[in-house]
Amino acid sequence: AIEPAWRRNNLHNSERYWKQFIFEVAGKQISIQQGRVDYEDVASLGLTVWDASLVLSKYLESFGASFWRDKRVVTLGSGTGLDGLAVAAMGAKDVIITDLYVDLLSENVSLNAIANTR
Fold first, then answer.
1. What is the DSSP string of 42-78?
2. Which candidate, 56, 55, 35, 5, places its Cα nearest to that of 99?
3. 93 and 71 in contact (C-beta within 8 Å)?
4. Would you call 105 helix, strand, or coil by DSSP?
5. Beta partners for 95?
6. Beta bridge pairs of residue 75
7. pLDDT band at 6, cuts 50/70/90?
8. Does position 105 have pLDDT exceeding 60, yes or no?
9. How far apart are CA 84 and CA 8, in angstroms?
10. How far is the C-alpha of 116 from the C-alpha of 118, rounded, in Å?
11. 3-state secondary structure at position 7
12. What backbone phi and psi angles, to 5 degrees, belong to 100?
């Protein structure tokens, strides 16, 4: 079962934003490793899965897998990469995920072993 975003609000930020996060899109589980957010450093905000990313991923899912087939997708400022991994899991032909934290993105791409993603 998927933990709804609103239910995550019952957790303290120290728990909510740094643990591995598992999300389901199009019947496939996507695992996202998160980093610790330093609220003094705005750039570190991309190290966590924000609720807006969950909503965007579900919106992208609403187009259906057939829409994403043969599509090439580039995500800019993707943070942990959830949105790009979601469209890749739905069958996009080629997905390029970008953000400042390349190591975290690479870890999440490897963690999910989605071949059409870089």
1. GGGGGGS--HHHHHHHHHHHTT-HHHHBT-EEEESS-
2. 35
3. yes
4. helix
5. 73, 117
6. 97
7. very low
8. yes
9. 22
10. 7
11. helix
12. -65, -35
The percent of the chain in helix, strand and coil, each rounded to the nearest 5, is 40, 20, 40
Residue 20's pLDDT band (cuts 50, 70, 90): confident
Yes or no: say if 34 and 21 are a contact pair by the CB < 8 Å rule: yes
108: number of Cβ within 10 Å: 28
Nearest by Cα to 83 from 7, 68, 70, 3 = 68
User: Which residue(s) pair with 36 in the sheet?
Assistant: none
Tens-digit pLDDT profile for residues 37-91 = 777 777 777 888 888 888 999 999 999 999 999 999 999 988 999 999 999 999 9
Average pLDDT over residues 17-32: 84
Tokens at residue 91, please?
């069958």
